[in-house]
Write a structure and sequence with these properties.
Elements (H helix, E strand, L loop, with lengths): L9 E5 L5 E5 H6 L10 H26 L4 H10 L4 H13 L5 H14 L4 H10 L7 H5 L6 H12 L5 H13 L4 H12 L11
Antiparallel strand pairs: 1-2
Helix pairs in contact: 2-4, 3-4, 5-6, 8-9, 8-10
Length: about 200
């Protein structure tokens, strides 16, 4: 067993057959490991199981520390990273028991980020879907989604300025649609921004 952990905080334990297992300190202490310790097959199997569970927990901590995730998203990402389904599920339950995972709070954070970036309600829905937020929470967190007219007007001012033509307006409109704003919202904002300037209605078709 290595005397010092690697950057991830794991100790390398090498077995007689040449295989190497990387273990966190907690697992090393739980199994009272030391260099030269002999273990039978049953003990090695228990060690592997414990190592897998601890690996999933520590990876879950790193993921949650780096970004807002839902329970379903965290479990999915752990499995993608190579953790077993059972270890991933138990890691999520462990994080939930520690009050480190809350789908509604995560959903609220996602929606607030979308609002601050000037995204429309549809883009917020897409973000909730991508983060695997349960759909029964969507209505609650989206209920007070603010009117985006001012954000759309600011976007138009940045993209168009005073010297623009129909092509510029179409490109700006397409960009606003990609940002999750509805046709109705964009139409109202464009009418206000152009202040009666002539433009073709089919730009919204």
């Amino acid at each position: 067993m290595t005397a010092q952990p690697d950057r991830a905080g794991r100790y390398a334990v090498k077995f007689d057959d040449g295989t190497v297992m990387r273990l966190y300190r907690q697992t090393v202490e739980d199994f009272l490991l030391y260099s030269g310790k002999e273990m039978d097959d049953d003990e090695v199997q228990k060690l592997r199981i414990a190592a897998g569970k601890m690996s999933a927990k520590m990876r879950a901590v790193r993921i949650v520390s780096a970004s807002s995730v839902s329970k379903s998203d965290l479990e999915h990402r752990l499995i993608q990273k190579g953790e077993s389904k059972e270890d991933a599920k138990q890691a999520v339950e462990w994080m939930t028991d520690l009050d480190l995972l809350d789908d509604e709070k995560t959903a609220q954070q996602i929606v607030q980020r979308c609002i601050s970036k000037g995204y429309g309600r549809s883009r917020a829905k897409q973000a909730l879907f991508e983060k695997r937020i349960p759909k029964e929470l969507w209505e609650t967190v989206l209920a007070d989604y603010p009117d985006q007219t001012e954000k759309i007007l600011a976007f138009l001012a940045t993209k168009l300025g005073d010297d623009w033509d129909e092509k510029d307006l179409r490109r700006a409109t397409d960009s606003l649609l990609r940002r999750g704003h509805s046709y109705q919202e964009i139409r109202r904002a464009v009418q206000e921004y152009t202040d009666g300037r002539d433009f073709r209605e089919e730009i919204y078709d």
